[in-house]
C-alpha cells in the first residue's frame, strides 16, 4: 500500500539543532540509502546506480522528509531519483542547451542579456536535480573563485549598461558569509549597479542555511536585493521554508520564484495553481514557469509546449493575474527569455 503522507509525519526521532554545514554534509548520496529510506522497490536500484555514475545523487535529509514513502511517483522524489532514461540519448538534447559556454566572458561571468550579468559563484549545490540544465557545465574552469574575482569585477565595472549582478551557480548559498561578503563588497563598489539578484534552491531544500549570520550579511548589502527561489511543487513548502521566506523578507529581499515545468512532477493545472497559492501565502511571487531546457539526460521530463499553453490557459482562469507565472523558454543566442503565450 502506498503511503499518502510525507515521511516527516511518520518519523519520531528526537530533533536536534544542526548547522547548515552539517545538514549539507549529511545529505544522502547513495541511491541504495535513498531507496531504502523511502521503502521503494529495490528493482529501481540498478538503474539508479548506473545513472548516478554520470551525475551524482545528492538529497538533503530534510527534503527527503517531505516525500511520501513507498510512492515512486512522489513529485519530490521524481526530481532527484536517478533513472535509466538519463542514459538514453534524445534528438535535440545537448550538454549546453542554453548557450552558457558561448556567453562566457571574464572571471566566471556569463553575459547574455543587456543590463544584467551572471556570475557563477560556485559549482556546488545542496541538491542534484536530475533536470539541471548545468549538469554538464565545466565549473572547474568557469567559476568566479578567488583567483578570478578581480577579472569579474573589472568586467562588471567596464560596462555602464549593467544595472544588475546575478549570483548563480551551482548555488551561491553554498558559500560562507565571508565568501559571499567578498563577492558582494566588490560588486557594491560599482556605482552603476543597482540590484543584486541571487538564484537559489538551497534556501528551499536546506532552510537551515538562512540563519542569523546569513540574514545579517544580506541585510548589510547596500544594493536592492532580489532572491529568486526555485520551487517546483507545493509539497516542497513546509513550515521551515515559510519561516525562511519570512526571514529573507525581513532582511530586505524581494522574493520571486521560478519553476521548471516537469512531466510527472507539476504538469497539471491543479499542481501549478496549488504551487502559486502556496508561494504567495509564504510571501513569494510566482515569476517564471520555464519549459524544460533540453539538456542531455533530461528528455523524460519534457512537457510539449502545446500542453504548456493549455496549462497556462487553465491557470489564467483559476488564478488572479499576479499569481500566474510567465511561461518562458530560454534559447541560446537570444537577447532575453522568450515568452510563450496563447495571445500571440
Protein architecture, described:
The chain is an alpha/beta fold and 344 residues long. The chain folds into two domains: 18-87, no CATH class; 101-339, TIM Barrel, CATH 3.20.20. Helix content is 31%, strand content 14%. It has twelve helices and nine strands. The chain has helices at residues 20-25, 31-37, 45-54, 61-64, 75-80, 149-158, 177-188, 202-205, 212-220, 239-250, 269-281, 305-318, and strands at residues 109-110, 116-122, 164-169, 195-200, 224-230, 253-260, 285-290, 326-329, 338-339. A nine-stranded mixed β-sheet has the order 1-2-3-4-5-6-7-8-9. The longest helix has 14 residues, at 305-318. The radius of gyration is 20 Å and the shape is globular. Residues 10-16 have low confidence and may be disordered.
Q: If you average the pLDDT, what whole number results?
A: 93
Sheet-strand content, in percent, reads 5-15%
If strands are numbered along the chain, what order do they take across the biggest sheet? 1-2-3-4-5-6-7-8-9
Strand count: 9
Which term fits the overall shape?
Answer: globular
In total, the number of domains comes to 2
The number of distinct helices, counting runs of at least 4 residues, comes to 12
Report on the biggest sheet: 9 strands, mixed
CATH topology of the largest domain: TIM Barrel
Helix amount, in percent? 25-40%
Taking all Cα atoms into account, the compactness measure Rg is: 20 Å
CATH class of the largest domain: Alpha Beta
CATH superfamily of the largest domain: Aldolase class I
**CATH 2nd-level architecture of the largest domain:** Alpha-Beta Barrel
- Uncertain runs are 10-16
What gap, in angstroms, lies between the N and C termini?
46 Å
Structural class: alpha/beta
Helices and strands, in order, run as: HHHHHEEHEHEHHEHEHEHEE
Amino acid at each position: 500500500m502506498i503511503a499518502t503522507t510525507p515521511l516527516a509525519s511518520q518519523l519520531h526521532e528526537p530533533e536536534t539543532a544542526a548547522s547548515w554545514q552539517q545538514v549539507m554534509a549529511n545529505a544522502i548520496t547513495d541511491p541504495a540509502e535513498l531507496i531504502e529510506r523511502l521503502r521503494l522497490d529495490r528493482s529501481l536500484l540498478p538503474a539508479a546506480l548506473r545513472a548516478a555514475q554520470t551525475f551524482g545523487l545528492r538529497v538533503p535529509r530534510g527534503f527527503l522528509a517531505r516525500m511520501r514513502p513507498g510512492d515512486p511517483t512522489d513529485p519530490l522524489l521524481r526530481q532527484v531519483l536517478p533513472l535509466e532514461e538519463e542514459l538514453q540519448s534524445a534528438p535535440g538534447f545537448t550538454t549546453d542547451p542554453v548557450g552558457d559556454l558561448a556567453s562566457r566572458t571574464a572571471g566566471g561571468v556569463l553575459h547574455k542579456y543587456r543590463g544584467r550579468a551572471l556570475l557563477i559563484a560556485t559549482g556546488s549545490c545542496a541538491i542534484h536535480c536530475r533536470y539541471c540544465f548545468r549538469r554538464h557545465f565545466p565549473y572547474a574552469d568557469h567559476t568566479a573563485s578567488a583567483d578570478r574575482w578581480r577579472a569579474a569585477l573589472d568586467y562588471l565595472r567596464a560596462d555602464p549598461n549593467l544595472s544588475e549582478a546575478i549570483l548563480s551557480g551551482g548555488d551561491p548559498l553554498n558559500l560562507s558569509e565571508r565568501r559571499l561578503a567578498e563577492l558582494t563588497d566588490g560588486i557594491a563598489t560599482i556605482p552603476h549597479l543597482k540590484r543584486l539578484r541571487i538564484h537559489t534552491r538551497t534556501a528551499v531544500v536546506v532552510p537551515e542555511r538562512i540563519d542569523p549570520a546569513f540574514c545579517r550579511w544580506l541585510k548589510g548589502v547596500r544594493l536592492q536585493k532580489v532572491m529568486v527561489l526555485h520551487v517546483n511543487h507545493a509539497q516542497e513548502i513546509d513550515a521551515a521554508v515559510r519561516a525562511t521566506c519570512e526571514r529573507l523578507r525581513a532582511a530586505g529581499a524581494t522574493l520571486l520564484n521560478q519553476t521548471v515545468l516537469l512531466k510527472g512532477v507539476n504538469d497539471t493545472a491543479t499542481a501549478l495553481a496549488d504551487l502559486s497559492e502556496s508561494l504567495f501565502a509564504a510571501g513569494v511571487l510566482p515569476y517564471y514557469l520555464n519549459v524544460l531546457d533540453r539538456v542531455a539526460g533530461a528528455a523524460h521530463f519534457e512537457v510539449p509546449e502545446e500542453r504548456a499553453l493549455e496549462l497556462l490557459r487553465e491557470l489564467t482562469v483559476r488564478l488572479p493575474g499576479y499569481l500566474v507565472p510567465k511561461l518562458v523558454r530560454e534559447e541560446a543566442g537570444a537577447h532575453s527569455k522568450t515568452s510563450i503565450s496563447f495571445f500571440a
